[in-house]
Design brief:
The protein has 15 helices and two strands. By secondary structure, the protein is an all-alpha fold. The protein folds into two domains: 13-196, no CATH class; 199-337. A two-stranded antiparallel ribbon has the order 1-2. Strand 1 and strand 2 form a beta hairpin. Helix 2 packs parallel to helix 8. The longest helix has 32 residues, at 13-44.
Length: 340
């Protein structure tokens, strides 16, 4: 009795989980880009909220698993365990400028260890510029940036230069520093996420489409393609050769599903069991309506079929030197024509 497979219910649960995870990653990337874009809009608007921008940047950094950026955001949001440690460190650093005694040095070393243990890094979480902006109590100090914005807005509204503790110019300097730094960080993350992986993202779209079609057709074939790519990513040469074998089996299995072997000939091509390329050709003749798409897909199949045969002969003769990782990676061409 023939077993029927249905989409989203493959027998190989691990394969389905992998495909689902990859799609989930694309959704996370899309959400991160949305948050970063909104953060940049806040930072670039004269009426934008730096607090709102930092909150969005923080959420994006969590999705992207960027701990350095997330910690920096927590400091700007006034997370007490970080701001308390930094405040003690900075205060002692200022004292050391006037008192270079052994006791002060030991105290500074103690606070340095505390912030190191929290995962804070010099130049990232407490640069000279940041210390200058955050140290003065007149500028708000190590508090939530939203509170700094509120204090500044109050002084502007009352047309006051200070309230006895906080000074408008120092508060503004603090806000402008955080705005500028947040914009640098958000821009860098946005550009890396949107542009650096453009080619990869395009390939992922195609890959997901092909994976879905193979899962519809036969989950075992989808598993074969996954295994082939896993093999070419390995650092072991023997696995590169295995990827070629797996890819050939994939094409043979695909041909069995699309156009089973027969004694017939189509356009002069034999459709026997070993003629898997011809059988895929025969399927394309009836399945692809566009002549241009049909010709392109057939060209891909012809190339891959003849290339695999050539490589297979070299491998059988023991010519392993020519079977490098680049050659093995070419076995991924099923993704190129698989969506045709």
């Amino acid at each position: 009795m023939k077993i029927h497979y249905y989409k989203k219910k493959p027998t190989n649960y691990l394969l389905y989980a992998r495909v689902t995870h990859e799609k989930g990653s694309m959704k996370q990337q899309k959400e991160s880009l949305r948050l970063l874009e909104e953060a940049l809009k806040e930072l670039e608007s004269s009426k934008g909220s730096v607090l709102s921008a930092i909150q969005k940047l923080s959420r994006a950094s969590v999705i992207m698993d960027n701990t350095e950026v997330h910690l920096w955001c927590l400091i700007q949001l006034g997370e007490q365990k970080y701001t308390t440690a930094l405040r003690k460190f900075v205060n002692t650093l200022v004292v050391k400028q006037k008192d270079d005694s052994k006791e002060v040095k030991e105290e500074l070393a103690e606070y340095q260890k505390e912030i190191d243990d929290l995962g804070l890094k010099a130049g990232v979480h407490y640069s000279s510029e940041e210390l200058t902006a955050k140290y003065p109590e007149s500028g708000g100090g190590y508090v939530n940036i939203g509170f700094v914005e509120e204090m500044y807005a109050d002084l502007v509204r009352t047309k006051s230069g200070n309230d006895g503790t906080h000074y408008k110019n120092d508060l503004n300097r603090h806000i402008n520093y955080v705005r500028k730094k947040a914009h640098e960080v958000a821009s860098k993350l946005f550009n890396e996420l949107k542009f650096s992986d453009t080619v990869s993202n395009c390939f992922d779209l195609l890959k997901n489409e092909v994976d879905d079609k193979l899962l519809d057709l036969d989950p075992f074939l989808a598993e074969q393609l996954m295994l082939a790519f896993k093999s070419v990513s390995s650092s072991k040469e023997e696995e590169w050769s295995q990827a070629l074998t797996t890819c050939r089996r994939l094409l043979e299995g695909l041909a069995d599903q699309l156009h089973p072997a027969s004694d017939k000939k189509v356009n002069g091509r034999v459709l026997g069991q070993n003629q898997y390329v011809n059988r895929i050709w025969a399927f394309m003749d009836t399945a692809i309506e566009s002549d241009s798409n049909k010709a392109l897909a057939k060209t891909h199949v012809d190339y891959l079929g003849s290339w695999l045969e050539k490589i297979n002969k070299l491998a059988n003769k023991g010519v392993h030197a020519e079977l490098g990782q680049l050659e093995a990676t070419k076995s991924g061409i099923p993704y190129v024509f698989g969506n045709s």
